[in-house]
Design goal:
Order of helices and strands of chain B: HEHHEEHHEHHHEEEHHE
Number of helices of chain A: 6
Oligomer: heterodimer
Helix content of chain A: 55-70%
Shape of chain B: globular
Number of strands of chain B: 8
Largest sheet of chain A: none
């Protein structure tokens, strides 16, 4: 007798399990910014920080900066690359642009600028 | 007599089964996925604008997985409407401040102050694999994403994503050609491609930030489960 109840019992249990509506894992809003080859070139630079990869990444930054609203951080990272290329004046220009475009960046960009000053002072003392 | 009773019982049960099934089907409870303002209640309350993305912790045998995956995390969060501290500036400051992994993973408030951010994304890479079989190849990326508040230290968002792409290119009659074709197709698709797709999909239900038109408008949108599995196509991996 019991064996006749096992199958319908299991079916009922299964049927009573709360079912989830399916959710599609896609964004509801379109991307806000243009990225071009940003991810690819940034990865190449992080894997191998040589002159060629730095220049390729700068090319991407330059192409993105002509866009009406460049993504957050594009100018700040361009500034970091200029800093690494021993061009602090150009780096400062990009940092200023980042702060003008995105005031949220002020705290960390000013921290970078303060560090630059410390480094300059240390260099001057060593000379 | 006993046999007759058994037959009667069998018949009753046979009628009972569809009756029970019909009843259970009519009362079938369908659980609605929770709304974003329920699941991410604290994130909506905190109203964050900025996020720091820490270099991912790598728990795989691929030594360079962190540097591969790190750049894939920025575009999805910036496109979600947040101000994202960019990767080179983040790495430069972390290096200058000489911060070790213990501080990075446990001191949200200190990092928040240092970078002037409202949230911090911690990522764990759990799988990073590309395999070539005789007749097919497979790419697997699995990662955990945890966003914590840089003001309270509380967890605001969590997702674990498993993404895989199975690639095969069967050539009729030739196992060797099938192997070559599958290997070529697998080689044309990188783990980075799958990682980028995983990253994009992982934040699909993250409440939109202040630069998005969906800012404070998406509270009643549905959100996904904490763990998701993504699979991509066989013959056309770019789908």
């Amino acid at each position: 007798m019991l064996r006749y109840l096992i199958f319908p019992g299991l079916l009922c249990l299964y049927a009573c399990m709360p079912m989830q509506h399916s959710v599609s894992y896609t964004n509801d809003y379109p991307p806000l910014y243009l990225w071009n080859k940003y991810e690819k070139n940034c990865r190449s630079y992080l894997l191998k920080s040589d002159e060629k990869n730095a220049d390729d990444l700068i090319d991407v930054y330059q192409s993105l900066q002509t866009h009406q609203s460049p993504a957050p951080g594009i100018h700040a990272d361009h500034g970091i690359l200029m800093l690494k290329k021993n061009n602090p004046a150009a780096a400062m220009t990009f940092f200023e642009k980042e702060m003008n475009l995105y005031p949220e960046s002020q705290i960390y960009v000013k921290r970078i600028m303060a560090k630059m000053d410390d480094m300059n002072r240390a260099d001057a003392q060593n000379e | 007599m006993m046999i007759l009773k058994q037959i009667q019982m069998k018949t009753q049960i046979q009628f009972l089964i569809p009756a029970i099934l019909l009843t259970s089907c009519t009362t079938l409870p369908i659980a609605e996925p929770p709304q974003r303002n329920e699941t991410y209640q604290e994130l909506y309350q905190e109203n964050p604008r900025t996020i720091l993305i820490l270099p991912p912790n790598n728990y795989t045998s691929e030594k360079k997985a962190t540097r591969h995956f790190y750049p894939a995390l920025f575009a999805p969060l910036a496109d979600a409407g947040y101000y994202v501290i960019p990767p080179l500036a983040t790495l430069w400051i972390l290096e200058q401040e000489n911060l070790n992994d213990t501080i990075l993973n446990n001191q949200s408030l200190k990092l928040g102050e240092l970078f002037g951010v409202d949230m911090i994304l911690h990522t764990n890479i759990l799988q990073w694999e590309k395999s070539y079989g005789l007749d097919a190849g497979e790419i697997i990326v699995e990662a955990e994403f945890l966003i914590t508040s840089a003001k309270t230290g509380k967890d605001l968002f969590y997702r674990r994503t498993y993404g895989s792409c199975h690639i095969s290119a069967e050539v009729e009659g030739s196992k060797f050609l099938t192997f070559i074709a599958s290997a070529a197709r697998t080689a044309s698709l990188t783990v980075d491609d799958i990682a980028m797709r995983c990253s994009r999909s992982s934040f699909f239900d993250l409440p939109r930030g202040p630069y998005s038109s969906g800012y404070q408008q998406d509270g009643d949108y549905k959100c996904g489960p904490p763990s998701i599995r993504l699979q991509w196509g066989n013959n056309n991996p770019s789908d």
